[in-house]
Amino acid sequence: MKRSNEDILHRHLENNGNIISLLQDIQAVFGYIPRESIYYFSEKLNIPSAYIYGVATFYSQFRLNPAGKHKITACCGTACHVKGAEKIIDSLKLELGLDDKEDTTKDGEFTLEKVACLGTCSFAPIVLIDGKVRGKVKHEILVREIKSMKKKK
Amino acid sequence: MKKDILIRVCMGPAGIAAGGKDILDEFKRIFHEKKIKASVGKKCSSHQVGCMGLCASDVLVDIVIDGIKTVYQHVKPDMVEKIVEDHIIGGKPVHRWMADEILVDFNKKQMKIVLSDCGKVDPEDIESYICADGYASARKVFSSMKPEDVINEIKLSGLRGRGGAGFPTGLKWELARKAQADTKYIICNADEGDPGAFMDRAVIEGNPHSVVEGMIITAYAVGSEKGYVYIRAEYPLAVERLRLAVKQAEDKGFLGKRIFNSDKNFNIVIKLGAGAFVCGEETALIASIEGQRGMPRSKPPFPVNKGLWEKPTVINNVETLANIPYIIKKGHAWYSSYGTEKSKGTKVFALTGKIKNTGLIEVPMGITLREIIYDIGGGLDEGKNLKAVQTGGPSGGCIPASMLDIKFDYESLAQAGSIVGSGGMIVLDNDDCMVNIAEYFTRFTQSESCGKCVPCRIGTKRLLEILEKITTGNGEEGDIEKLEELSEYIKKTSLCGLGQTAPNPVLSTIKYFRNEYEAHIREKKCPAKVCKHLLIYAIHKDICTGCGACKRVCPQEAIVGDHKFPHRIEHIKCIKCGACYDICRLNAVGRS
Q1: Over 80: is that where the pLDDT of A2 sits?
Q2: How high is the pLDDT of residue B37?
Q3: What are phi and psi of B172, to 5 degrees?
Q4: B381 close contact with A: CB closer than 8 A
Q5: How far is A108 from chain B (nearest CA, A)?
Q6: Which residue of B has its CA nearest to A81?
């Protein structure tokens, strides 16, 4: 982890970037924003860690906990909403055994993420599974797919 | 026999989702295999294009042979071979897959300016845009126009900011031009945070160079040497295509030092947003580019005087900028001949929801809602009735079906309690609950509120609590009045546009659909059968054949009954997910 942080620091100083770009770099490397990284950059860049946390928690892109192996991204845009996004999310949560506050399963296999809008409204409702687009999805078919992904584990 | 053959495959957001890439690969594979280039003619090219508009029919494929265009719809990879065999080699188009008829209707009332090259040019190839007269306007500006002339041209065209608020673009530029400073910035706002809107995404993915060219012209007019594009990280393809466009423009000498052989310099930097709706607001966006929490500040001073790093800054939305090259090319008189007296030109809308022809449309301002829904959109799905159209996203409102003849322009919509906004247009039918829609938008604005000012932070929270109370069957008399009163306070006292417009969905749904609120509160019923806390599922024992389909899908094992005998739902276990209702083919599961 130290090594990666050093690389990011190097690039960051070169591009003379800001905290958001820095956090985006950190997340690109680790998949989330580890606590150690925040302390590391706070010290190296002489910025209070509270300030870095402040920026990291403001934007929805940043995660402070590691994500699961498989990422399921459910679009909650208006078009998806009126075409049943809520039902899809509810059934996914039920299948994955996630309560209201969790987004990652305990075994670290799946993360269920909600996004404001993916801009593919014509194919609503949209769900991404590991970055691949599933348009006009039906909850029962999705649940079946998740079940088979679980089996393959 | 030599022919010019051009194949265009839609790879807009929906085109990709429908498998556009597989189609293009299949064409390339078959061409290679059959050595089409050698046997049919020299000029045979196939390439990707951005959104063609009619997303409902994706993947759309244009086959242009010697200038004659045929459009195929719902193309799947296994259809490609027949199209090549019959049409390209045999000269006989495959009629049953053609989309021409539906496209004629879809396009009849549209007027494409911003989208005129979208769906024609290859977004990843600058030459393709240059062939379509691209960068001619920028060249013209640099070689024969004074900055004041450019500003005047835009002022006369009547173009207003397409990001939502509709501020006159020319005036904004003039103010920035007059501001005294050593450095000035221009920013392209591509932070399309509105749920249900994808115009900016489609324009950047379909024709990124038109935005770059618009920025070059803006920079010349206001005297700026540095531009930023603030773009959503959720749109990776748009980011990639924009980066490529900037790189290609740099290579051509359109960006960088001494552009177009003038003494002017201009650079574009791409900044990725990190997911915050409030960053669509100018001052919050500036804070975000500076690397801070994206919180707005009070205005004045306006960004044109004090913006990015305290320097004069012009912020224009993607669509506004994409209009600029076309206005310069064809002149202000041409542009202002479209639209209404106060709202000139065209507007791009993302038409989605319960409508047949979902997609991206561009229409002259002042068109009626009826024309959009029925003439362009093809009406609603079979057997459904139009209930309302939601415009302007979380800052907008709902227009009821009874007001179908309303004109689409800034003033008429404001009067109806909605806004043009960035251009999302979501069609709702009788299966949509308006209280639920209000709750949905309020939940969105509440979670996106930056929290700096109390009216927005706490006000929207309280609004949401009352709405939740109503949709879960705990509404009381007086709640509607409370919503109205609170909404007025939030509108009047919030710091920025987010809070000032957050109550719009609530107020407009109360205004036009008060009876639905009353049904939720007084009868504890959701007329559209959406609010799940107010629903009861039951199986009609006279209809149920005991096939067990519902039993198998029930996640709670709440359905009991023996095979081939009527089943029943144990209400204590039921979580009202509706899986049984959806799966039953005999309509034996009732919902009330």
Answers
A1: no
A2: 56
A3: -60, -45
A4: no
A5: 22
A6: B440
Burial of A69 (0-12, 13-18, 19+ CB in 10 A): middle
Task: For A24, name the nearest residue in chain B, comparing CA atoms only.
Answer: B274
State the nearest Cα–Cα gap between B424 and chain A, in angstroms.
9
Cα–Cα distance for residue pair B498/B449, rounded to 1 Å = 7
Query: Rounded to a whole number, what is the largest CA-CA distance in chain B?
Result: 86
Using beta carbons and an 8 Å cutoff, which residues of A are at the interface with B? 17-21, 23-24, 54-55, 58-62, 76-79, 81-83, 87, 90-91, 94-95, 115-124, 126, 133, 135, 139-140
Shortest distance, CA A128 to any CA of chain B (angstroms): 10
3-state SS, residue B258: coil
- Asked if residues A55 and A20 have their Cβ atoms less than 8 Å apart, the reply is yes
- Count H helices, E strands: chain B? 24, 17
Quote the CA–CA distance of A17 and B291 in Å, as a whole number.
8
- In the block, tokens 């673009």 appear at B169
- What are residue B346's DSSP bridge partners? B364
pTM for this prediction: 0.92
Best probe of the A interface among B51, B230, B293, by most A CBs < 10 A, is B293
**DSSP H/E element including A51:** helix A49-58
Please indicate whether, in this complex, the C-beta atoms of A121 and B352 are within 8 angstroms of each other. Answer: yes
pLDDT of residue B401: 94
Does the beta-carbon distance from A94 to B555 stay under 8 Å? yes
* pLDDT tens readout for residues B68-114: 889 999 999 999 888 888 888 888 889 889 888 888 889 899 999 99
Residue A86 CA to residue B342 CA, distance in Å, equals 40
pLDDT range class, residue A16, cuts 50, 70, 90 = low
Across the interface, of B196, B294, B579, the residue whose CB is closest to A77 is B196
Contact between B437 and A135 using a beta-carbon 8 Å cutoff? no
Average confidence score pLDDT of chain A = 89
| Chain B residues 345-374 with a CB less than 8 Å from chain A | 350, 352-354, 358-359
pLDDT of B300 > 60? The answer is yes
Closest partner residue to A62 among B202, B274, B289, by Cβ? B274
Q: Which residue of B has its CA nearest to A85?
A: B440
Task: Provide ipTM, 2 decimals.
Answer: 0.92
If DSSP states are collapsed to H, E and C, what string results for B81-127? HHHHHHHHHCCCCCHHHECHHHHHHHHHCCCCCCCCCCCCCCCCCHH
Q: How far is residue B504 CA from its own chain's centroid? A: 19
| Contact criterion met (CB < 8 Å) for B195 and A60 | no
Q: Compare CB distances from B579 to A79, A116, A140 and report the shortest one's residue.
A: A140
Residue B139: in which H helix or E strand, if any? helix B136-144
Query: Does B437 contact chain A (CB < 8 Å)?
Result: yes
Q: What is the pLDDT of residue A129?
A: 92
Question: Phi and psi (nearest 5°) for B548?
Answer: 90, 5
Tokens standing for residue B2: 């030599």
Q: Which DSSP category does A104 fall into?
A: B
pLDDT value at residue B3: 66
Nearest Cα neighbor of B108 from B361, B331, B302, B329 is B361
Interface of B with A in 56-115 (CB under 8 A): 56, 58
Residue-wise pLDDT tens digits, B494-505: 999 999 999 999
- Per-residue pLDDT of B542-555, as tens digits, reads 999 989 899 988 88
Tokens of B192: 């399309």
Q: Does the distance separating the beta carbons of A20 and B288 come in below 8 Å? A: yes
How far is residue A28 from each of residues A21, B249, B476, measured CA to CA in Å? 10, 28, 49
Q: What are phi and psi of B258, to 5 degrees?
A: 45, 60
Helix (H, G, I), strand (E, B) or coil at B301: coil
Given pLDDT bands bounded at 50, 70 and 90, which one contains residue B36?
A: low
DSSP 8-state assignment for residue B534 = G
Give me the mean pLDDT over the A115-133 stretch. Answer: 88
